[in-house]
Task: structure prediction
Amino acid sequence: MSQYNSRCYSVPEEIISDILLRLSVKSLLRFRCVSQSWKSLIHCPIFTKLHLQRSPKNTNFLLVEIDVDPALVLSYSLHSLMKEAIPFNAQSLGFGKDLTECYCVNGSINGLSCVSSIVYHMKYKVFNVRLWNPATRLISAASPPLFVKRECESIVKFGLGYDDSTNTYKVVANIIDPRQWKNELRIYSRAGDTCWRTVSTSPDLLLSWEEGQFVSNTFNWLAVCPRGPIDRQRIELFEYTYDDYVIFSLHVEKETHKLLRMPVDLDRSKRQEPKLVVLRDHLCVFHDFKGTHVVVSQLEEFGVEDSWTIIMKFSYISLQIDACSCSFGDYSQFNMSEDGNYLLIYNERDSILLVYDQRVKEVSKCINLCNNNHRWVGVNGYVQSLVSPQ
Result:
């Protein structure tokens, strides 16, 4: 028996690697202390990439409570939201001490989120952004400063993109001047840019004040493209119709843009601005239909304008909201389960999460986040990963 116990058995490295690839990020972070070889394997870029490829995609919703220190950060799948109550007193995923100046969280790609902060100087608002991995609690160095004149009262919306051809993360800033009804795009690459570069746009376009939607290596915005000069008064009175809208698409690698046509089967009697979102890696448009329903159209093949298809239609009544007071502008985040059964809609103004069950055509769960009087930011498409933000 003693002779049997003295034998030394070793597990092949490829089997160890295959087992570890099946574990959660939380477990892998703990197992780094098992041995130096395990630590080296878990930190290996190839292992990180393979682990990310095996992870579920676009199924999680990240909630960040940004008015407290330390902030509470929670990650939920749509299915878990159906079964569990949100534990407001739960331990955070980790919001680093360097993020105390964070005022906005913008998008999530490969487990990384873009966080931005602002400092006010006499003549300028100075922004910088960082990449942050909530699961590993790591954060990148700050970007070069983005200077925006305070006198313009500009609104700045950031978006995070990923250039898979060069393994580079890029951040785009949409700088909106509400007085002149003009906007300017700036872009910053984590691959070595020392400043924010201006991206050319058409002077005949006015991009939406929403965040750019990233899909298929492109940032996308709804844009007003009228037949004549942009009329500020018509914008203020919401007189532009669906026929005046296009989708402005900026390619993240080439940094060139093109215009995409909107779905052709929209209700032409415009009542409110459509909403451009990404669901299950497809570009989608949420739009009003006759003041009673919301219709969701999906671009089945990106760039192919004839591939718009209606994938969902639901009534305002089924959402338990007042159609007369409803505005898509109140809803900042949308997400859909991988099986297409559940749609999550987040009203950031009222801090309410709605989970709509497509099978029974009704809201299955309504979660009020206002019970602790703190401000929450919702981020779609989050997946825990080992990807380094550096």
Q: What stands out?
A: Helices lie at 2-5, 13-20, 25-31, 36-42, 45-54, 78-83, 232-236. DSSP finds seven helices and 25 strands in the chain.
